[in-house]
């Protein structure tokens, strides 16, 4: 049995998720409480767990109401570190600590889907509010090591703004227009292969991006230097 990922919009551009099997579900960043509960009722799913990609207010704002209106139990981010998975109907929802945006940022892997919160967006990455650029770099390297067909489900829809920025610093990139053409504002998803073609923050080894950094007289000798340089553009 495979796990399924259902995306929900709330607060304009926030994205939350139900990951479910045949009978049970985990609510991740459950800001869309009503639609999530309705979806679960329609499919006879029990929302068993509530958890978050990180503890910024817009991602945890729905926790209390979801817990009050269901029998779900909370798995706080503090309890995720060191945990390998959350079991749903006998299948693992895998957990990866991906610090950078915040120190308590996590990514969830359900089959071929990555729920990346504010670590990796479709077309960009999150701000490094933790100040830990080295940790963020390690997280990005971890995520980009997954198969290129992996689906990226992020914590916000910033696609149009991200592609406008990508085009401004990499105007000759032929993949940006096709990425935008494939963009569906009703179901925001991309593959890692897509991201490696258009997301400037993942393209620190691309000749065009290295040339841009050199033009700005930014350090480019090592991958980590290029990552830090790209984060300043």
UniProtKB/TrEMBL annotation:
Location of the Metallo-beta-lactamase domain: 13-156
Alphabetical keyword list: Hydrolase, Metal-binding, Zinc
UniProt pathway: Secondary metabolite metabolism; methylglyoxal degradation; (R)-lactate from methylglyoxal: step 2/2
The keyword Hydrolase belongs to this UniProt entry's keyword annotation: yes
Xref: Gene3D superfamilies: Ribonuclease Z/Hydroxyacylglutathione hydrolase-like (3.60.15.10)
Cytoplasm recorded as keyword: no
EC number from the UniProt entry: 3.1.2.6
Entry-linked Pfam families: HAGH_C (PF16123), Lactamase_B (PF00753)
MF GO annotations: hydroxyacylglutathione hydrolase activity; metal ion binding
Primary enzyme class: hydrolase
Record InterPro entries: Glyoxalase_II_hydrolase (IPR050110), HAGH_C (IPR032282), Metallo-B-lactamas (IPR001279), RibonucZ/Hydroxyglut_hydro (IPR036866)
Signal sequence annotation: none
Protein name (database record): hydroxyacylglutathione hydrolase
Organism, scientific name: Desulforapulum autotrophicum (strain ATCC 43914 / DSM 3382 / VKM B-1955 / HRM2)
Top-level taxonomy: Bacteria, Pseudomonadati, Thermodesulfobacteriota, Desulfobacteria, Desulfobacterales
Gene that this sequence comes from: gloB
């Amino acid at each position: 049995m495979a796990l399924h990922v259902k995306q929900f919009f709330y607060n304009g551009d926030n994205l939350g998720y139900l990951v479910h099997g045949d009978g049970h579900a985990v609510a991740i960043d459950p800001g869309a409480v009503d639609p999530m509960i309705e979806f679960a009722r329609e499919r006879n799913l029990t929302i068993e767990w509530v958890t978050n990609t990180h503890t910024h207010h817009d991602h945890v704002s729905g926790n209390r109401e979801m817990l009050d209106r269901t029998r779900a139990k909370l798995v706080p981010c503090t309890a995720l570190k060191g945990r390998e998975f959350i079991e749903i109907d006998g299948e693992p929802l895998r957990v990866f600590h991906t610090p950078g945006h915040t120190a308590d940022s996590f990514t969830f892997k359900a089959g071929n889907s990555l729920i990346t919160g504010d670590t990796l967006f479709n077309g960009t990455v999150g701000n490094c509010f933790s100040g830990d650029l080295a940790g963020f770099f390690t997280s990005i390297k971890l995520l980009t090591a997954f198969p290129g067909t992996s689906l990226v489900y992020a914590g916000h829809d910033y696609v149009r703004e991200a592609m406008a920025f990508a085009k401004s610093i990499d105007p000759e990139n032929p993949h940006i227009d096709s990425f935008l053409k494939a963009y569906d504002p009703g179901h925001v998803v991309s593959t890692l292969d897509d991201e490696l073609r258009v997301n400037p923050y993942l393209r620190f080894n691309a000749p065009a991006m290295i040339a841009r950094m050199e033009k700005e007289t930014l350090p480019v000798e090592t991958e980590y230097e290029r990552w830090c340089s790209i984060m300043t553009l």
